[in-house]
Amino acid sequence: MARSTLKRTDPKRDARRLVLYFGGLIVVYAAAVAMFWGAEDKNGVFLLVMFAPTVGALLARFAGPGVIQWGRPTWWILAGLIPAAAALVAYSLGSLLGLDTVDAQTLVKALAASPLAILTASLSAAGEEIGWRGFLWPLLRRRRSFLFSSLVIAVIWWVYHVPLILLGWYGTRSGILAFTVAIVGITLLLGVITDRSRSVWPSILTHGVWNALVATGFAVTTASGDKLEAFTGGTTWVGEFGWLAALSVLVAGIVATVWHLRVPSSHRGPARSSLGDAAGNEG
After folding, report:
1. What is the DSSP annotation of 73-97?
2. What is the pLDDT of residue 101?
3. Which helix (H) or strand (E) holds 232?
4. C-alpha distances in angstroms, 29 versus 18, 69, 274?
5. What's the mean pLDDT in 68-82?
6. Where are the alpha helices (DSSP H) in the chain?
7. CA 89 to CA 55: how far, in whole Å?
8. Cα–Cα distance, 190 to 188 (Å, whole number)
9. Domain coordinates of the chain in residue numbers?
10. Which DSSP state fits 41?
11. Distances 77 to 30, 81, 134, 259 between C-alpha atoms, Å
């Protein structure tokens, strides 16, 4: 292994890398909140906040120096559709139980428009995933178990969202428990997908699918700019702060984790190629 690669993966430098990573993340996050504190339109703050993990990851990558595990797109990218499939089943069952209401015509339109919606959502989701699963997850997995790494990521991801929730800028305070359950479930699922694929791309798509379809209740934007939701019924049940999505992704995450821990893999953890070999996947 080249000397430069050993330097970028030397565990003695992990503390420095983490300081740089979280330092960059927090500075961008705080700056975004300060910039939009008095603004009526908060959309800009979400875009800046979502790219805070990437800023931290790039800072740690070059000044650490560290590694961003890019990997290659493989068939594992299709696993990104799991949250949408699980939520679709949960929402549909919920409509049968009277927990939510489904508009079949809107659902068909939303599914037809989903490729573009997912692509758009994935572009912003990449801002988080390059930091979470591209940098932080491989760093943890080089030294820690799957479950410990998942716990750390889940707590950090939860803390990352909570200030905006408490400020009333994002989601609902009443739905924070369901949101917590969703965070746990999707963290487990993304951990499995990232370990198995050794790539950041499946997690980007998974996050994009969640934001585009699950969190919106499978919404579609009309020609006039209005958003129509295929599933409605209040935030208690529908959306990323609703219990139907939260429980569905928790089940998916637990099932995936049990399978992952029981079925051997020849390459768990970060990809060897991502550490700087001739494949060119190292960031």
Report:
1. --GGGGGGGHHHHHHHHHHHHHHHT
2. 96
3. strand 231-232
4. 16, 23, 28
5. 94
6. 3-9, 14-35, 43-50, 52-63, 82-96, 104-129, 137-141, 146-166, 176-197, 201-209, 243-262
7. 36
8. 6
9. 1-67, 73-270
10. -
11. 32, 8, 15, 18
Least confident of 70-79, 166-175, 176-185, 273-282: 273-282
User: Which structure tokens are listed for 153?
Assistant: 């990521």
Q: What is the pTM of this model?
A: 0.91
Cα angle: 243, vertex 134, 33; to 5 degrees: 65
> Which residue in this structure is represented by tokens 């992990």?
14
pLDDT digits 0-9 by tens, 220-256 = 987 777 889 999 988 899 999 999 999 999 999 999 9
Q: What is the pLDDT of residue 266?
A: 64
Cα separation, 168 vs 165, whole angstroms = 5
Contact at 8 Å (CB) between 230 and 114? no
